[in-house]
Amino acid sequence: MAGSGPDISPEVVITTSGLTKRYGKFTAVDRLDLTVNRGEIFGLLGPNGAGKTTTILMLLGLTEPTAGTARVAGFDPVRDPLAVKSIVGYLPDNVGFYPHMTGRQNLRYTAALNRVPPKEAEERINALLEQVGLSEAADKRAGTYSRGMRQRLAVADALVKKPSVLILDEPTIGIDPEGVKDMLAMLERLRDEEGMTILLSSHLLHQVQEICDRVGIFVGGRLIACGKVEELEKQLAQREDFETELSVVTQEGKELPAADKDRLLAALRSLPGVKSVAEEGRNLIAVRSKDDLRADIGRVLVEQRLVPVLLRRRGLTLDDIYDRYFAEGVSTDRVPA
Amino acid sequence: MSQLEQSLSLRFKKGRTTVEGSGSRSRGRFFAVGIGPVARKELADHLGSLRFGILLVLIAVAAIAAMYAASGSIKSYTSADYSFPFAFLYLFTVSGENLPSVISFIVFLAPLLGIALGFDALNSERSQGTLSRLMSQPIHRDAVLHGKFLAGLGVVSLALAALLAIAVGIGIVLLGKPPSAEEIGRLIAFLIATVIYVGFWLALAQLFSVLFRQAATSALASIAVWLFFVVFASLIVGLIADAIAPAGDNATYAEIYRHETLVNRLDRISPVTLYEEASTALLNPSVRSLGVLVMSQVDRAISSPLGFGQSLLLVWPQLIALVGCVLAFFTISYVLFMREEIRA
Lengths: 337, 344
Prior knowledge:
The complex is a heterodimer of chains A (337) and B (344). With 337 residues, chain A is of the alpha/beta class.
């Protein structure tokens, strides 16, 4: 993260080094080092008040960092805010539109502020309204829009300037599940077809994890984990025991007799690397081990002619990672003013 | 991919030229980037807004009623054919039997026009959530302040010019003669002075809209300042002057002179006084001085109207002071707004 000069590698679009924002004694963002590569979707994840929005504001030059630097496409948001803003589309948290103007008029205003020639602006606006599914409501006053419609209009608004970088603050808030799916599909398409670099923040991890190439987990102003989702899983797995849960029946589909069950438990305990085997329910066995033993457990079942109805690694979906990192993170009652 | 790279680098280059364009503002570009679209949008908003329409009708009704009343009382001044010089201007400066003059109405009501157009300039953008969207576009922050001010001033100029034209038309009907060239010149100067006066209140209201998060707070603050200057300022000036330079029943000339000069100077802190003096001197050529005159100064002076140029010279300081206040308000708004965090 040392290369934060103007001649950064063309593959890196956003970098921050030691980026810090303090409000009085409260530190909203604490020495943040972040890199976002060209053409990737980066998810900034964390609970409310973790400093996600503040980070985004600093990237856009909407607030000044207390210390540290940020570069967006090589431009410094403090010195060259206009350069940054002309290539970055931004969807703010809690976005609003002029209520007395129609959706289309609102977009026209944004296009005019970006000095898009009127004719081209009309074409872009029509295409974007089509994309976000607002063609029919385009000539209604924005004041009558629902939260979801506003959010979709905001996406169109961020794209009117044809940005090469898109920064979205909680883009999925207030949209119904179907709408969320549409929006995420749209973001993926923007990345794949237009090579757009996308930074999005969210506190709903499971909603956005599928489309994020990399995620950063942000708690209490600090980035406590960053990387590909699988990498994070691995990192966490290295520190934690591997837990497998299984549930088996006889070949006739009946519950195991006590004798068979004892035989199974003994066989499992004798597997190399097993730390503990516990019976957790009427028909649920949990195996703790150093490494992934699912293949070996499967073999044991085959040898004993038992049928698994459940054999899976416990936990460590992203939600678990998230929960666990949150638990590690500092207190979460720190909400910036 | 290479095509993509190209288009990206092109876009980046475009970005760079924008920066250079804005960076060279000190070298040639006077206005902030983005002022045009902001001003155009605000102009359209104002022209379509109900509150602007209401105020304009109020001022129009007051002015026309005052003119009509004035035309009645001018008759008592002179012969029925209104042939004395500057009869036209008297329509604006003379008060009728039950109504104050047009000037006093405008002194009183015009500030409301400026306040109505400016009090929610920035805080409404904030509360609507449009400010962060606006500020993430490649425009300078001062473009928003300046664009809004210019739009407000534009609407005010337009409305006042139309109002004045209507007033002149009514005047022609009432007096049965058209205004002379000098009278037209004086009326235009009066129009410009009024626009500057409204500009003062507009800039003040805009400053409050930066300062206060709630539109209601900034409206109340603006109204408080307006009430203070329109109603209470002269009372307070009187009190202060009485305390510092008392002039009782048997005061000497020197004491009276000292008292009056002090009152005059303190009065001029108020924008209302500045505008009142300016408009009176512009519309009434027989006003020869805006300060305190002693008998020895007017002794043997020929009572004749002042030339237009001389009247302009007389009101020059007043107008410059008003413009200066506008600039001061702008500077404060600018400093407050420029480094503020734009959080939704």
